[in-house]
């Protein structure tokens, strides 16, 4: 099964402890990073039930990755493409969520697929860095919440 997905799609990640992470796709690459996407976690909950229309009311859950606070996770797209992370709806990204598409990749400042500038090493910490997480690491990060 090959599922298509896009920015704004809301999907669930089943966690190993029986809970679910309700997430929204922030960046779905159509170019340079075509097998990568980014998302934020809106809620970690006991059931699969999630009101997609309420996703805008949720601030991104702050997660810990290697001791750093993160609001965005970059991942390979295999789990969403094969339906293991089911899409449950879609809501257009708001202005604030659109700003979450800006990230650092190897010193390049990107807004989605488009490089919008270069940044100094001393400024790296001001931006989200594209660090692609494996699926086991994503489980670990989410289970700690």
How does this model look, in words?
With 145 residues, this protein is mainly beta. The protein has a domain at 9-94 and 130-143. The chain is 12% helix and 39% strand. It has helices spanning 78-81, 95-99, 135-143, and strands at 9-14, 20-28, 36-45, 63-65, 68-70, 73-76, 87-90, 102-105, 108-111, 114-118, 128-129, 132-133. The strands form 3 sheets. A 6-stranded mixed beta sheet has the order 7-1-2-3-6-12. The chain is globular and about 45 Å long. It starts with 8 loop residues before the first strand and ends with a helix. The model has no long low-confidence stretch (mean pLDDT 94).
User: What would the average pLDDT be, to the nearest integer?
Assistant: 94
Output the radius of gyration: 15 Å
Instruction: Give the oligomeric state of the chains in this entry, treating copies of one chain as homo and distinct chains as hetero.
Output: single chain
Strand order of the largest sheet: 7-1-2-3-6-12
Number of strands: 12
Helix content: 10-25%
Q: Could you give the distance between the termini?
A: 30 Å
Beta-sheet strand percentage?
A: 35-45%
Main beta sheet: 6 strands, mixed
Helix/strand-derived category reads mainly beta
Low-confidence stretches: none
- Give the CA-based shape: globular
């Amino acid at each position: 099964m090959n599922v298509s997905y896009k920015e704004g799609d809301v999907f669930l990640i089943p966690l190993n402890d029986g809970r679910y992470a309700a997430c929204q796709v922030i960046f779905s690459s159509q170019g340079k990073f075509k097998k990568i996407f980014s998302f934020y976690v809106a809620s970690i909950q006991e059931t699969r039930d999630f009101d997609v229309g309420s996703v805008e009311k949720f601030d991104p859950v702050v997660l810990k990755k290697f001791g750093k606070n993160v609001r965005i996770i970059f991942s390979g797209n295999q789990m969403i493409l094969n339906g293991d992370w089911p899409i449950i709806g879609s809501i257009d990204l708001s202005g604030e969520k659109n700003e979450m598409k800006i990230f650092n990749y190897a010193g390049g400042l990107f807004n989605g697929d488009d490089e919008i500038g270069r940044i100094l090493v001393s400024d790296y910490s001001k931006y989200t860095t594209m660090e692609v997480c494996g699926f086991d690491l994503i489980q670990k990060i989410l289970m700690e919440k």
